[in-house]
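Q: Sequence in, structure out?
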Amino acid sequence: MSTDLLTLTQWLSPAFPLGSFAYSHGLEQTMAQGRVQSAAELQIWLEETLRFGAGWMDAVLLCQAMAGADVADMARALAASKERWEETFAQGTAFAETLKSMGHSVRPAALPVAVGEAARMLSLAPADVAQLYLHAFASNLVSVSVRFVPLGQSEGQAVLAALHPVIAEVAQRATDTPLDVIGAGVLMGDIAAMAHETLDVRLFRT
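A: Exactly. Output:
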């Protein structure tokens, strides 16, 4: 069990070569518009994304993939924009390629699908895998804000710590959610991701 947990931690570590640091999930556009300029505003944005946006959908897709469901096509259909799809598929492809170099076969797919399929080999509960996945997702976006707003490192870590109960709740709820009720409701976040394609100066790919 401890070895499997270490393996998952390695997969979701910033050191694992997914290129996650290059993606802001539309947050760069939101910050450029002045809608996220403080730690408090960032926490609200991330909490909504985790509860009702891509965080929630990714957790469900991951749990379904761990259970053996083929959700690769659904993950593509749920991507709200071209940039959102490129973000998740590029990272999922990098994840699969890195695992292949380590002797494991996982097909390129959206990141939560690739992680879920790979996690079948681990003796870990889906809720635990989803929690660490969501923590990595939120941690990357906190890092984006620390670099862009800019926020202090301490402020960023305080935001991440405050999101721990939300992450645990979303991950647990995702384990019992069937695919036929999956959906998202963060329209401003989706619109920001779409508008980001035309942002004049960009630090991040999405």
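The first helix runs from residue 2 to 11.
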